Amino acid sequence: xxxxxxxxxxxxxxxxxxxxxxxxxxxxxxxxxxxxxxxxxxxxxxxxxxxxxxxxxxxxxxxxxxxxxxxxxxxxxxxxxxxxxxxxxxxxxxxxxxxxxxxxxxxxxxxxxxxxxxxxxxxxx
Length: 125
Hints:
- This protein has 125 residues and is mostly helical.
- 70% of the residues lie in helices and 0% in strands.
- It has five helices and no strands.
């Protein structure tokens, strides 16, 4: 029984090592993703001051999709040269409020009440 378990562990470890070395295409994709992430971080470091960067990283823990949208917006604005200086925490709060207003979902509740005949109307007392 121990030999079977040992052999199973060996096969599993071999599969992990092969997956880790992986395909050269996978390594290229990983490298491209890594370079893109570094580029995004460097642009954001140039655009945001420290307090705004901290707020954005805290938001990323809670709402990663909203953070990604704000980051894309900031990078786009920076590329077109529409920023006059570094974005402060207050500026970031205003941007987040605008994004929240644009993506806010309007919830409506509609009640469909069935008309039921009242039992008191038909009493012949």
